[in-house]
């Protein structure tokens, strides 16, 4: 478990933005075309509606330009673009290239595919680039899962949706916001959640659920240990928004009360790489961090990846 060297060059968020798919699809809409119900979906997942439609590039451009505007910086001053996505628009080039050009960036750009852990993977990479001398990095998490969802499969179609969240990370003179982090993966579980190239997502929901709780708790504990904090010191927890029952079970095991947990899954469904930034930066009435708060981001996804980070909100 790596710990952050005390003299590392730090960074913090200075701007952020979000975007959602163009069309709202309710549970009742889904019940018109498959054997399911609003009551079943709410009870088993916590999802009330989801937003679908829009390419990965288009949503990334929308959230990314909002983040640049909030930070008040010239796009040409960004030193790198990290785009977390598991649904690139093309096989080649990386969707980050399209986004880099559209936003007027003049820097390196690359995609990161770590499924639903993607935003945290991208964020840790961005902190690493700043430690190596970059001044400003744009980190985006976007997925258009509706394109890889089989809309006749009630096992998956009730869960997945489209969205994007972006943040500008800028270097600071102090230690910065990142206090501890953990990245993990277990490729031996590949078959429980996958999509072939050009195919739809296939999932063993029960097995994903069972592992998800365990790996989120494990990763969160590693990050907290690296940060030298305990769960009772956290003010806000931002978990991957897959299923409210996974969130409550993991937070219960971590000893974090639900009043501290940011939940947007009722509004967004599971947007994979976009899920954590939507829950952190969105405006859905969720828990939002204040200056100085300790914040835990924790995700899990196909691969089976897990990723977490302990941040001090607003830290210089
Ligand atoms: O980012 C990571 C992505 N994936 C996940 O996080 C998925 C994790 N897993 C889950 O969220 C849950 O396992 C699901 C929501 C997918 C399923 O919930 P569950 O509580 O595990 O349901 P189940 O598969 O055990 O099914 C219970 C019953 C079954 O009927 P019987 O056999 O008891 O008669 C299913 O056939 O519910 C039935 N069922 C449905 N009924 C209405 C399964 N899906 C549906 C549905 N609507 N959509």
From TrEMBL:
This is Unannotated protein. One of its GO terms (biological process) is fatty acid biosynthetic process. Keywords: Fatty acid biosynthesis, Fatty acid metabolism, Lipid biosynthesis, Lipid metabolism, Transferase. Pfam families: ACP_syn_III, ACP_syn_III_C. GO terms for molecular function: 3-oxoacyl-[acyl-carrier-protein] synthase activity. Residues 225-313 form the Beta-ketoacyl-[acyl-carrier-protein] synthase III C-terminal domain. HAMAP family: FabH. Residues 110-187 form the Beta-ketoacyl-[acyl-carrier-protein] synthase III N-terminal domain.
């Amino acid at each position: 478990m790596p710990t952050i060297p005390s003299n590392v060059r730090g960074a913090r968020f200075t701007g952020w933005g979000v975007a959602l798919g163009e069309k709202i699809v309710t549970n009742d809409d889904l019940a018109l075309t498959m054997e399911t119900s609003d009551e079943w979906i709410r009870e088993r997942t916590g999802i009330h509606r989801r937003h679908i439609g829009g390419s990965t590039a288009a949503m990334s451009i929308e959230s990314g330009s909002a983040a640049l505007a909030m930070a008040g910086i010239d796009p040409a001053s960004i030193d790198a673009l990290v785009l977390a996505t598991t649904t690139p628009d093309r096989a080649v080039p990386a969707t980050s290239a399209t986004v880099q050009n559209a936003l007027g960036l003049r820097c390196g750009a690359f995609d990161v595919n770590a499924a639903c852990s993607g935003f945290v993977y991208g964020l840790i990479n961005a902190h690493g680039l700043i430690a190596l001398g970059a001044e400003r990095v744009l980190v985006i998490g976007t997925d258009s899962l509706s394109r890889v969802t089989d809309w006749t499969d009630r096992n998956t179609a009730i869960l997945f949706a489209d969205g994007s969240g972006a943040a500008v990370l800028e270097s600071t003179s102090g230690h910065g916001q990142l206090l501890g982090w953990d990245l993990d993966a277990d490729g031996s579980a590949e078959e429980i959640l996958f999509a072939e190239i050009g195919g739809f997502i296939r999932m063993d929901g029960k097995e994903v659920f069972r592992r998800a709780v365990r790996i989120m708790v494990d990763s969160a504990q590693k990050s907290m240990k690296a940060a030298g904090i305990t769960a009772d010191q956290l003010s806000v927890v931002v978990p991957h928004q897959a299923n409210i029952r996974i969130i409550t079970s993991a937070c219960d095991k971590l000893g974090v009360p639900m009043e501290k947990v940011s939940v947007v899954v009722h509004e967004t469904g599971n947007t994979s790489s976009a899920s954590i930034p939507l829950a952190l930066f969105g405006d859905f009435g969720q828990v939002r961090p204040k200056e100085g708060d300790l914040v835990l981001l924790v995700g899990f996804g196909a691969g089976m990846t897990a990723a977490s980070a302990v941040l001090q909100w607003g830290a210089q």
